[in-house]
Amino acid sequence: MKKYILVFLLCWWGCSSIPDANNKIDYKHIPYVSNENDCKIESLTLDTIFISSENENDMTSLNGVYFMKKDTICFADRLLASVFCYDTSGKFLGTHLSLGRGPNEILGLYSITPSEEGYTIIDASWNVFAVDSNWKKKLTSRIDWNTDKSGKYLLNHPDPNENGIYEYEFSSKSMGWWKGRLLIPIVTEHVTYNAYGQGRSKHFYEHSYTIGMLQGNDFKLVRMICPRSPVYSKYEYLSGFKGGLFTVCDDSLFFSFEADPKIYRMDLNDEKVVAFGRAGEDMNTDYPERKSLEESDEYLWEDHQKYGHYYDLKYIPETSVLFRSFRHGGSCKEDGLQMYKNTCLVAEYKVPKEFKVIGYFPPYYYAAGETGDEEDERMVIYRFSLF
Asked: Quick one: pLDDT at residue 273?
């Protein structure tokens, strides 16, 4: 009996001794500013642009992410650590960067975002590369997690406010600049403080941060923001859908989470937050709870096909439109795209799977997505106009 009491006391002490987040959002009392008017749900008329690949120089590995800067469509190839550029008709313009340690080579590529001076790249080992607008490498650095605590201390003293327990969240594709700071997705996979239990998953969802701010000159982590929203308090082990998504424009940070129908807008100057947004139509949100890292990894892809979730946010400053992409789940062969204007849901569209808006060049919006044919490996971009 004494043994069981001791174990109970140790577990209770371990759970209760974890500090709360210092920079917590009071989600229960933030204003909800959405207009509840009904919106149209319809198919979006899309033009399909096939990306040219006529010779070895313009062939990609097909593993990467699209982005857009002005009138140039870019494909950041993760395996080749190269960026392939195309005009808005899909014509190949050229390739930049390559894998290596040379003067204009990089050690890898996972995420990329345009900056005022050019582009910022982060690889899978947390290396950071600054590239100018002519694709010349100007700086190689690393994410500095800014901690003086030892690994042993961090292992024995999990704390959501301690920088050293976090890492880059590679399941998220979000990244952006604000006033000389680079915003990146972060997550803690601490051995005893994570999404999988140890009696601490509730605390993890409520208090651990999802976005980190890095100083632009040395990429040192200087601030952490945005713990997960209360939707996660309904679950004990929602590890497969814990990811966040965000997009930055001027002083506004728009952010949301895979399982949350709401979208949040934070003023980055004072960190005041308002909420808006509505759930996507016909989403299967009967989520299974995966109680271990191994189980979560095993079913991650399958769960993301079966169950509805939100997977992309993109704000277009030229038209003041916010797009949010989501998966219906179940047997639905299409995804959904919500369009918000001034925090109001204006329209919801049926779109191809994995549909992500990447930019705008008048008069069209451009998006990446699947072709719908598993045997068709051609690269495609979709374009569309509104109203």
From this structure: 97
Q: What is the DSSP letter of 171?
A: T
Alpha-carbon distance of 270 to 256, in angstroms, equals 19
Other beta carbons within 10 angstroms of residue 101's beta carbon come to: 8
240: CB partners within 8 A, 6+ apart: 287, 288, 290, 296, 299, 300, 303, 304
The answer to whether 241 and 285 are in contact (CB under 8 A) is: no
Q: What angle do CA 83, 84, 90 make, to 5 degrees?
A: 150
Asked if 355 and 368 touch (Cβ cutoff 8 Å), the reply is: yes
Q: How far is CA 280 from the centre of its chain?
A: 18
Q: For residue range 369-383, what is the model confidence (pLDDT) as tens digits?
A: 998 777 777 899 999
> Which of 325, 306, 305, 307 lies closest to 315, judged by CA?
325
The HSE-up count of residue 197 (CA atoms within 13 Å, CB side) is 9
Count Cβ atoms below 10 Å from residue 69 Cβ, excluding itself: 17
Which amino acid belongs to residue 146? N
pLDDT: which is higher, 254 or 8: 254
Cα separation, 162 vs 181, whole angstroms:
19
- What does the pLDDT look like over 103-116, one tens digit per residue? 889 999 999 999 98
Token pair 């690269």 in the structure block, residue: 379
Q: Are 33 and 343 in contact (CB under 8 A)?
A: yes
For residue 174, what pLDDT is reported?
93
Question: What are the DSSP calls for 15-28, one per residue?
Answer: HHTSPPPTT---GG
The whole-angstrom separation of Cα 298 and Cα 310 is: 21
How many CB atoms neighbour CB 37 within 10 A? 8
Q: Which region among 132-136, 235-239, 309-313, 378-382 has the lowest average model confidence (pLDDT)?
A: 235-239
Nearest-angstrom CA–CA distance, 3 and 7:
6
